[in-house]
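Objective 1.3, modelling of assemblies. Example input:
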Amino acid sequence: MASLIHCPHCGSRPKEEFSIRGDASLVRPSPSASDEEWHRYVHIRDNPKGRYKEHWHHAFGCRRWLVVERDNFTHEVFSVTDAAEAAKAVQA
Amino acid sequence: MRYSALSILKQAFSGNRGWKPAWREPEPKPHYDVVIVGGGGHGLSTAYYLAKEHGITNVAVIEKGYIGAGNVGRNTTIIRSNYLLEGNEPFYELSMKLWEGLEQDFNYNAMVSQRGIVNLFHSDGQRDAYARRGNAMMIHGVDAQLLDREQVRRMMPYLNFDHARFPILGGLYQARAGTARHDAVAWGYARGADSRGVDIIQHCEVTGIRRENGRVVGVETTKGFIGCNKLALAAAGNTTTVGRMADLELPIETHVLQAFVSEGLKPMIDNVITYGAGHFYISQSDKGGLVFGADIDYYSSYAQRGNLATVEHTIEEGVSLIPGLSRTRVLRSWGGVMDMSMDGSPIIDRTPIDNLYLNCGWCYGGFKATPASGFCFAHLIARNESHNVARFLRLDRFERGFPIDEGGKGPQPNLH
Amino acid sequence: MSAHRLSSGGLVDRSRSLGFSFDGLDLKGYEGDTLASALLANDQLLVGRSFKYHRPRGIVTAGSAEPNALVMIGKGARTEPNTRATVAELYNGLVATSQNRWPSLKYDIGSLNSLLSPFLGAGFYYKTFMWPAAFWEKVYEPFIRRAAGLGKAVMEADPDRYEKAWAHCDLLVVGAGPAGLMAALTAARAGLRVILADEGFRLGGSLLSERVSIGGTAPSTFVETILSELAGFPWVTLMPRTTVFGWYDDNVFGAVEKVQKHIALPSLDLPVERLWRIVARRAIMATGAEERPLVFGGNDRPGVMTAGAGRTYLNRYGVAVGRKVAVFTNGGSGYQAARDLAAQGIDVAAVIDGRPAAGDNLPNGIRLIQGGGVVKVKGRHRVGGLLVERSGFEESIDCDALLMSGGWSPIIHLACQRGAKPYWSDEKQAFLAPDVGRQLLPAGSASGLSGIGACLRDGVAKALSALASLDLTATSPDVPDVEGEYDASFAPLWYVPGARDKAFVDFQNDVHVKDLGLAQREGFGHIEHTKRYTTSGMATDQGKLGNVNATGIIAGMKGVSPAEIGVTTFRPFYTPVSFGAMAGTSRGEHSRPVRRSPLHGWAKKNGAVFVEAGLWHRSSWFPRDGEKGWRQSVDREVMNARTNVGLCDVSTLGKIEVFGNDAAEFLNRIYSNAFLKLPVGRARYGLMLREDGIVYDDGTTSRLAENHFFVTTTTAYAAEVMTHMEYCAQVLWPDLDVRFVSSSDQWAQMSLVGPKARLVLQQVVEDDVSNEAFPFLAVREVTLKGGLRARLFRISFSGELAYELAVPAGYGEAVADALMEAGRPHDICAYGVEALNVLRIEKGHVTHNELNGTTTPDDVGLGKMFSVNKPDFIGKRLSSRFGLTAADRLQLVGLKPVDKAKEIKAGAHLLKEGAAPSMTNDQGHVTSACFSPALGHPIALALLKSGRERFGEKIVVWDKLRGEEFVAEVCSPVFIDPDSQKLHQ
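Predicted structure (tokens):
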């Protein structure tokens, strides 16, 4: 994966400053959602080969959660955005 | 042809011209009883045990590259059965028993070497956790020893005892654990399966899974359609990609794990060692290279290569544990892509689709499982019911709330 | 004496003589020598032994691809095995030793293996050593292991320093030969930040080995002119002795700089090696080309080397590799070698050209054998002549050295490290670098060009191209004319038939042509299978010399183009990198930072014994004079806390300040128990779950103001919980108005515990701390005597009347001192984490021993902390899964040994009395155990199947790992004060 990540808040920073959580496309279901939906949210991963959005945390920087969109085969990074903005967009 | 000292002698006197191919290169037949997707260790061992244990020989193993190109040829060659949970320990112990008789069984020297593994501990809490694990092994009749600091020092005087950030307090030792020559495992199973009639079809990529009336009837491949009564997936690393062809939804994320080998050195490390204060494991091959590894790179990846930060981190751990490594050199690094599951444990199960069987989710641990994985998967395919030691390795265990989580890390695959 | 130093010429400094030793023999070289050139100058042709057959081996190359001349360099803890003599810079006092031989380099018992070679073909070991089964580990494998391996590691701690650094540049130029120098110059004149890195100790690359005239000057003069101009630009960094070993994502390159590897006794003020991560906007790969050996019988005899190597030793080091040298070639390189030798007055025995017709001009008197091939090299430890075959006739050639050239392979390693495959060029008869985009461009002979002039021009062109891709322009430097170039073209000659001896493809691993054939016959035809079966390309040179030949030979066997065979995967590292450089300073005691509590000094002066707890050094216990062993101290500390008062440092707990209008709502969602209605001035124990319903962490959280909470976490999970909370706030609920910051390091926090705690506390605190004014779970900001503001919490982990007092970190020691002073009349004593643990086990409180990532709130007896009323919180929904509510789950219980002398140990398992040990019969395990001073016997906490229904049952504590098996009684996990009266006193 990218040796450098362009944090929207801090600029280009070494990958070692970040920690990685996983799939950023998951949306936490509402309390009224079905058991099936909750199971899928917690356990099932689309896991595509290619273009992929992933949650990264700038742990040794601004401590913001980021959405890194990238290719998980070529390791090319397409964009890095603040996760809260993305989450608000989904919720809106 | 059977391999033996005599056959080597005979061939030596005839210029080694009489050796036969270790396996055929057949064109695919239109239809098989069982088609196995994936010519890695698990796919080949499944074919071998289908033929040997169940008499099912009308079998094809389909491999998109060359056999053994995946993780069976990219790991750090460690075999062990030092697990904690009932879902795992009996399974890995079956694997260890199969390792112990493997070479005579398939007439191929895979250099199974029971040189022992020590899991070092560096705190009272770690000691307690390893004691729990060691007792779990023993309660299942598996050998385990709890070594104190001095016992470890006698076995491995070169470890960092005097200037360590985290003192070595002792280790959990399994004497029957060790290493095997990874490529040879794949070749031995391939040769054994081939000689029993299994078709090993290399350079044939599966492009689709054909279903009729909800049942799998065969696979589309780059060599055309191949029909089958039963389809078995053993494509770890690419499980999701293949599974998607049958609309399987899986608790899997794909990650890259790097591994390393040093320049060849005279024997210096006899055992397999794992570092408890960091993630690092090392052994020395018969050829003299130090074979070692550590964590995955943490990000999702299908590329068989990693990055420098993980390389550095791995070697930092190595030098911290074994200061004498400092002036030796690392020769090569490589990467393998693996299925990281939601609890760190594998899946050997039927699927919601008729005739489709699944073997995946091996995380870091696939190599040591190779014999039992094939043995139990063959059992499942042949009898349509789980082998007793694999009965917990179910696909629905997450939904039902029965994870097999050795590390207690929860459903975040890159932490396992 | 055959190989020898010429009386003049070359780039060595004959005025500076350097003494060194090889296998105990004292020898002399000059400054500017490599170990290899100095050995040759002393006629030391035999340098090493091969891996399998222990064949005598000499020096094949003059560079980093060397497979044979590996030696151990250095003494004692500085010994380095497997060092290539061809790149080892000579220094005064260098000690070199040959390796993989016994008893000596000249008389090596292992060479008997050669006699057995018909039995030792590729993969022979897979076919035998299987009987009897037990013999593998006991007999065969130990023998194989002893025979295998190359050098010996000393396994002593490294006395030298290493370091790591980042570098950033516009253009990285890898390789300082003709293309690299011109590329660097072009970019440097345009003002770009340029790094020029080269593995050699003298920049100039192949130019240093040439006799041409460049712009009317010698190549070395030309190099110096360019380097002095480059050195004048402040934005240019010249990095000799720096190997760029890897190309990683985002155009980050890994490189190792040898800072002091050419110094006998390195200064400790500098590292011996420095690892660089070079971030380059653009990079040019001007890495040159490798000359391929020819594959013929006896091509491994000491004294056989590549033509280019022979020319380098001659022209750069002033060393002739023999008195009478033969040349075997399939192209122009061999002819140039003959011309160079002749120019220095060395007798050229013959030039044997494998091509039937082609040829080049040779000085008068040199014999040319066209269409011939060497089938045998006479001699044992050095070349003693050749057997040459042409048109079915054999002829002996008298010579003492042989230079060979099988053509050239561009060095494309870096460009192929990230998945792109090289492609075969019929025109160049070589694999060329794939197009990997504008970030990394091959230049010069690395891109398949030949000729110095062409490489100089290509360096300029590629630099301009790199600049253009950055939207920059530059003027093209004048490229001088080159006179005296030779035609380096060649025709394929993959191997020479009729070999009378082994014809090696991979020298070090002893892979010869027949091995490749055997691999094809046995089905290992894929090039990756061939590699793995024969070990061709797996030696320390990673196939730099042999891989392309192997491909060509296999292609020939199959009758296909090398394009169809391909080559094996290129992976880091270009050349092997020391563990030391990769580890840098992160080793030994410095492998992780040490965290010390603000009360570390206080604990130390009170005599604490410290223990590693994660990164922390925590005070473990405080021994007093006369106490025998830790248990005695801990028992005293526990009893004193239960009867008088104790003081414990709890500063390592994670601390998070939470603010915002939605702070309460936020906490309500991340804890399984309710937080909305927590009153200001109160603390509450909170339990956090993972989304899968398993307990994540616990701690007390206090409401300091309406919109200000103070969260504490366990020491171990401080960072993880903070990260988790940030994830929840930013990703899950970005609409909530909540902010938080870690204040773990800002507060010194101490726990004052025991019936006399209030008496002691009141002497230090201005505010009223009576039970009425400050009841259990009260929280308040208070003023200490003297005016310091502090936070006071009435919470208890021990079951005693207890307070936690938090003060700004810098005041911690002073406040702890004051408490100790105030407590002296009440027999206060400090206690550490051991006593803390005993106190909490006696009270049945859980830690991560019990919250082990697999337990639910109910499992650990905290079911009441799982709110059924709250509509949603992390972990709620998946908690209702069948497996998490099953009746036979493990539940927290207490254990008391029936025989009170029996010590229960954590990690023991539990079995029903009379049940056979098996995983199915396994009832659970002991999670925490201690000797309870309050009860006077060992106790334990355990997780037991359906445990809460089983109080009173006798159960077997099964600890076979430590040879123990005895009966204990299952009981409540709360051993003292079950009604918690003490908390409210």
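The two ends of chain A are 31 Å apart (CA to CA).
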